Amino acid sequence: MKRLRTKMFSLPGELGVDSLLRGLSKRFIVEQRDHEVRQRCYYDTFDWRLHRTGQVFFSAGATLHLERFNGQQVAVASGRRKPKFFWWDIEAGKLNERLKSCIDMRALCPVVEVTSEATQFRMMNKDRKTVVRFVIGNDQLQGMGSDVVEQIVVCEIRGYEREYDAIVELCLKKGCTELKKKKLFERLLKNSGRTPRDYGAKFKVNLDEDMSIGTAVAKICLHLLGDMQKNQPGVIADIDSEFLHDFRIAVRRTRSLLSLMKKILPREQCRYFQGEFRWLGSVTGPLRDIDVYLLEKEDYLNLLPPVLQDGLSTFFEQLETRRAGELKTLQTRLGSKRFGALLSDWESFLSDPDSELFKGSRGQSCRVYADTMIIKRFRSFIRDGNRISAASPDEELHRLRISGKKFRYLLEFFKSFYDEEQMSLFLKYMKKLQDNLGAFNDLSVQQNMLGGELGGLRARNLQSIRFAAALGGLIALLSDKNQVVRSEFESTYQEFTRPEVQELLQAMVKG
Amino acid sequence: MKTIAVYSSKGGVGKTATSVNLAFTASMAGERVLLCDMDSQGAASFYYRIKPKKKFNRARLLRGEFYEFIRGTDFPNLDLLPAHFSFRNLDIAINEEKKDKKREVLASLLVPLADQYDCVILDCPPNVTVLSENIITAADCVVVPVVPTTLSLLALEQLLKLCKKVGCKKNKILAFFSMVERRKLMHNSIMKKYRAYPIFMQSYVPFMAEIEKMGMYRRPVGSTPRKSVAAQAYELLWQEIRARRLGQ
Q: Taking phi first (over 0 means left), then psi (-120 to 50 degrees means alpha), and beta for anything else, what does residue B171 get?
């Protein structure tokens, strides 16, 4: 079936609304509906997940809307504006489902607030059936009286194509110019001071071929520092779990770079920052661990048969309480002098022209250094991987996972030096292996954690017995899964070490 | 996509009023709704002020060439496939199909609409023909308005028999009392006796001038700014259908 068309026009200054309506009334019965003044609040996730998929979400009065950039409605539900929305805050239905698939665990936060004035008109045929919807209105940014965007919106109604065409033609004839909804929305965003997609979790830093090591390290680390600073307010305000997740990734990447480059970086400073970022990783860890369990609550419950599910509810209640305590501790840590000093020391180390970072051997070409590092790390990764057999202890797989992660970060830091296509293909192969290793690690960590819970339990009442039964059930299931993942390692690893994958890396580095 | 047929072999029980108002209520709840006016009288189309396009007819419908004849109503999320006078012989045309396909003609016509709509509501004509068999086969839920009178209950019994004949589960059928006049002793006693049966919903729609006046104003009862008693009755009915048969 054909998509319904919507067109927006701007009204030329010299053309009055009355004159346009007079023209329309020659062919249609024109009826003015209520004049509405509505506050619209537009939302998106911090990493612009809706904008990236060409959608906008807004609250208007008592309803919540999800629309495409062209104004086409995707889903609507009842609900009023709130400081933030998760998909599960919205009543069950299409909107809730669509948001679940688009934003996952992220919160929708207000991006821009607009006062919309609209007068609806119905263009009717002789049966007084509406054949085209016609709206004259304007959008005004909250607190910015001067920027008023006047517009006409013409909406097609299914089965009345000719009537729609006639109105569009008349608008154009009267000198109206077409407006694009996406552009209008972007203009509103621009005036509000926000830039769409100004943050994304994907790492992307462009380095020049002739950049020195010091300058390249500074550029990468300043980018990562920026990510930490951008996410820090969200962590403190506890907006959603991903602020902390992204914050930790930036810390982990920084630590990884420091460790990869420690031989070439000034020893004393490198040791100091490594220690401080290790501290930052450790203070942010406990809260993230709890978040991971809470995010997987549904999956855990679904793993268990209904008779055991009840036992887990206490576990999750306890986790929520523990989380509140951990959050408070983290908020204190992120407000501490130590954290403040780390950020400012790090920033001056990276940006001060007199910094040790730009002296000595750090002046040599980064590209050459990156090439050598990549080949060296890859060889060491393969060496470690080849040593693993079906009888190897789990720890060896965990070590391989960490070494693989470091290697992938290394590739990502310097990916702008290499052919984009080759790099993304190689990262795809790498990801497959890492997914296997990651799943193995997650399952082992989860089993250990649940085992720890079980060990600390005292069967004082029926509730603790139920909890113990649920934990036992889960551990057994996770252990089964773990065996499966472990058994898949060999074939996944073999696939990664195929000659063509190695050749791909060689070709990429040689350029 | 869920298909709801509003059906009774008895005329004048409020099938069209139910279809028109349920479709409106569902669309206001955010569902993308298509109301199919299967009754050649075209009352549902009349209520929504929609006339069929000139090229539309029964043959095109049966060939599956009807998408371009669907028209939007005055309300967002609510489209209507208008009735055509030639629908009066729809059952005869379906009867000419091959024996093994005869009961699934309507169901197969609706399949391609699944991407476009969340809910299809069929306003059915009052008869017991091969079209009725098609309707029961195609529907996920058959909503039956029952006026609290003996003849109307007989029509429900007849439908249950038909269900058995076509091999459909009885739990597809959801009846409710329609055009209820509380001042009438017979209405009260019939409702008291039958409402406890699981086939009956607890919501009912009273007899109201406002529903009768839909013919004058040509719009669903819920479309006025103030929510009327009739509109509330249809809202409750829709919620119960959703909860009991649509798994929502």
A: alpha
